[in-house]
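A quick word before the example. In earlier lectures we treated sequence and structure as two separate objects. From today on, think of them as two lines of the same record. Here is ExoP galactose-binding-like domain-containing protein written that way.
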Amino acid sequence: MPYSIGVDLGATSIAVAVGDDAGVRAAHLTPHLVEPSVAFVAADGTILTGQAAMDAAPEDRTRLVRGFKRRLGDPTPIFVGGVGTAPEALMAAQLRDVVAAVTEQYDEAPQRVVVTCPAAWGPYRREQFARISELSGVRVDEIVADAVAAATFFARDRRLAEGDILAVFDLGGRNTEAAVLRVAHGGPEVLGTPEGIEHLGGDDFDDAVRGLIDQRLGGRLSALDPADPDDVAILSSVDEACTSAKEALSVHEETVVRLNLDGAETAITLTRPDLESSIRPMVKTAVAALLRSIASAGLDPDDVDVVVLAGGSSRIPLVAEEVSSIGKPIAATHLPKFTVALGAAERARAWAAGSDHTMPARPDAPLETATANPLPTTILASSAPGTTGRPRVRRRSMLLAGLAVAAVAGAAIVTAASWSGRGETPTAASTAASPVASAPPTVVAAPAPAAAAAETTTATLAFPILTDGSSTTGLNWFVQSSDTAGVWGVTPLDEKEASRPNLQLTQTDAGFHAVWTGDSPAQLYAQSSGATIDLEDIADGGGALVFDVTRNSGAATFFEVAAHCGYPCGGAVDITSTINTLAEGATQRVIVPAACFTVSGFDPRAVDTPFVAFGTGALDLTFSDVRWEDLVGDDPTAVRCST
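And the structure line, produced from the sequence above:
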């Protein structure tokens, strides 16, 4: 199938999104989804980028280059091994490599390529940036401002009306950008002057965490010698731990950082207030840039309809708190690191399809707000980097209970994907409403015929999610719902309980007891705390998502199960009828064929969220023995699905 891509060559990471007739979705370049924005210049002049550069770095760390995007436009080259290299040459190598990787995945080159750059860049830096197309050998069809791309994705995903005013607040790894845009027939238009602040981003927040740790250790980190190989290894592990701690504190109130110093493990507990007190002045500086950008457009904050948060660092709760202080609604896309790339892919996809960027009418439904990524609360800093390969499920003659997943940072947040963009509350009679193009489409399932005879099928391959009330190691559980103001929030399962408005989850010996209340949407989900999970063999082997469910009481207004492969990659299946036809107090084994998910875009090779249960209504259910297994998709008791 022909496809197009959007590429965001960020200062600290590279994000690529794919657009085709099915919509737009994040491209899986690595198990972490994004590539690190680094380059390794070999002695023979060969330039490696991304993970390949990181893998080559141990040979000679002096040849590893970071932060070169901010050097674009500087007439002084970057010297590596005594040889000067222009920043645009390094960025061209990045573009060359990511396009080659996507081409290999899809067995054909993209039809169109749209690349983004900061809106605050002037003509000279844009001119230098435009050279990367020629230097890389990749035909770039459009270079679009980051803010325009972010607004494009958000406006189409949320169906804003023509004339609406958006402010984009993009807090990335090494810089902050703020811009104001108007939704127009041909796409978002920049108003006023975008504001950019270099040296203010996630890396600076990492430094703040490092400062907190160093203070607790009495300056022991400051005393380390960056020229000493042993100390360099320690400092490298500390850097990774600081980043992970920052991300963990975006979800949890405290986290534990474990460092190996002088041959002994040292544990430091950090709290969210610790982090917030350290970074609040920087965040306020960034918000001041947003206000200046609004004023430059001749507008007041009251004229802005919504502030869109983008960039990985926007997941920090303090950022939303400070941005909301201007008195306007704030919203985030589901993968903030991919917001810009997804918008660029949408532009590329629309042009390839021969359509324009006409904005649809505003729906009646309120905007949704995504939340921070769930991460482990204990951060371990090791003296050597770990491997990050994608775990594959191996063939067994039994269920693989207790399968562990290697811990890495950057798990993708699950959001109310199937709810996003729908203008009314779904009902049993209206479940065929079309989802937005950028969300995983929902397949409608019907129960198997009552006369179908049960057959015994023994799985040869399985990935357990929940067994006898115990979750598989490496999976974390969360509940998510909107509050009375329509703002979405997430709560992790802690001490066997998790509670949000409209949903209460309790872990028991019999399974996971979930109680939905009211007509507002809520969901529970299991998410990998580490690398993505490969379920391809199960899907290809006639597999299915299988679970036992007991309807204790109530009925669903709408109910579906889903699985995600890095939102918006995923698939969802409407099983409202299956749930509501189950007798009260009865338990039924539900089999949802993998094909029901893959037909709507689910990629079983890179699963980060193997189980989502999303619903509305007053409903009391208990889930047990949840797993993916092969061979059972054709079972006569399996639900029947159709798009």
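Notice the following. The longest helix spans residues 272-296. We will return to this example when we discuss secondary structure assignment.
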